[in-house]
Amino acid sequence: MTQQLRFIQVGTGGFGGYWCSKVLPAIVHELGAARLVAAVDINPQAHQNIISNVGIDPSRCYTDLRQALEENPCDFVVIVLPAHLHEYAVDLALEFECDILMEKPVSDSMESSCRVYRKVKRAGRKLAVTYSHRFDQDKQTLQQYVQSGLYGRLHYLIGRFTSNNRSAVNDPREYAHHHYLISSAVHQFDIIRSITGSNAKTVYTQSWNPQWAPFKEHSTALVQMEMENGVRVFFEGSKSNATQLNGWSNDYFRAECEFGTLELDRRKLVARSDLGFPHPRTAELPLLEQKHWTHTWLMKMFIDWVNGGEAPPNHLEDNMQCTALQYAAIESGLTGKLVDVQQFLQQHLGRVQQV
Ligand SMILES: NC(=O)c1ccc[n+]([C@@H]2O[C@H](COP(=O)([O-])OP(=O)(O)OC[C@H]3O[C@@H](n4cnc5c(N)ncnc54)[C@H](O)[C@@H]3O)[C@@H](O)[C@H]2O)c1
């Protein structure tokens, strides 16, 4: 029988509010997978989210992470802070010998992400990142069909995430100043890696801001990738469009396979083929079924790992590939040059040997 691990939730407002209302009740109460011992948010009003949804005593809610760690021994922390604070929270968690489950991205720069990687490795601790959209029902189903071989070899993949986020710029929580590829597309890069079953070899990006977009950084990108297994990928992403064609949880991915085209659009997966028996001309494919997807599933896998089970697919090592692809895509968009993703990763890791 596995031990009930103790954890601290760091960040209970903003997206932490979602964790408090949807993820933690399932983990703590429904699955009984771990025990919440404290919560931290610099904004005391945000404590109410965890008090009312998970039922923690208000005396266990802190505004300072160090104090919470000093007063509440725990096995792991869940970090749901803005990206520029991830490294700070990781440092403290490692100081108190905790494992870490953290919201995406690893950090807000390639340099900081590499430092996080080195520090976690040196400390010999476990860290997983919640790139949640890859672990959603529709994307997992497409991945399984592509990798089943039923439709032959994967030829190339097309992806799209397009939305109208222009109205969000007055809301500072909407990352109005962040580059689109940092704030949003990192999820889609992770999905691309999982559907193709490969890390990226090269990336070439054209990114820009249309005249009407109120964003401070590039809000639109057309990205071309070659994966290490030879599969080609084209991805379209924008937060500046007039409509939300394929927004959050409603992505578009089209996998062109040897014997069929698999098209996922707004959570509907359709297979098409003109090649005849045994492939129907058009067939809607059923989505996989399981009780929990995205964050709850990821947190459960993380807890099993800390309890001595297998590492989940979103462990830090895997995430560094995603991080490298993300920052290499940004660099390509800024320089206009094709970037070798593996070289980019090794160069940056090499620069932070000593931490
Ligand atoms: N997986 C997803 O689908 C998804 C969606 C949205 C956000 N996110 C991620 O969630 C994380 C949080 O994003 P957000 O929009 O909620 O950020 P946010 O700026 O709203 O901050 C979240 C909370 O952190 C608190 N906070 C800030 N500084 C703190 C500190 N020093 N100590 C303790 N608490 C502090 C804030 O008061 C707030 O309640 C980011 O990493 C973001 O990328 C993931």
Automatic annotation (TrEMBL):
<protein>
    <submittedName>
        <fullName>Gfo/Idh/MocA family oxidoreductase</fullName>
    </submittedName>
</protein>
<feature type="domain" description="GFO/IDH/MocA-like oxidoreductase">
    <location>
        <begin position="140"/>
        <end position="244"/>
    </location>
</feature>
<dbReference type="Pfam" id="PF01408">
    <property type="entry name" value="GFO_IDH_MocA"/>
</dbReference>
<dbReference type="InterPro" id="IPR055170">
    <property type="entry name" value="GFO_IDH_MocA-like_dom"/>
</dbReference>
<dbReference type="InterPro" id="IPR000683">
    <property type="entry name" value="Gfo/Idh/MocA-like_OxRdtase_N"/>
</dbReference>
<dbReference type="Pfam" id="PF22725">
    <property type="entry name" value="GFO_IDH_MocA_C3"/>
</dbReference>
<feature type="domain" description="Gfo/Idh/MocA-like oxidoreductase N-terminal">
    <location>
        <begin position="10"/>
        <end position="131"/>
    </location>
</feature>
<dbReference type="InterPro" id="IPR036291">
    <property type="entry name" value="NAD(P)-bd_dom_sf"/>
</dbReference>
<dbReference type="GO" id="GO:0000166">
    <property type="term" value="F:nucleotide binding"/>
</dbReference>
<dbReference type="InterPro" id="IPR051450">
    <property type="entry name" value="Gfo/Idh/MocA_Oxidoreductases"/>
</dbReference>
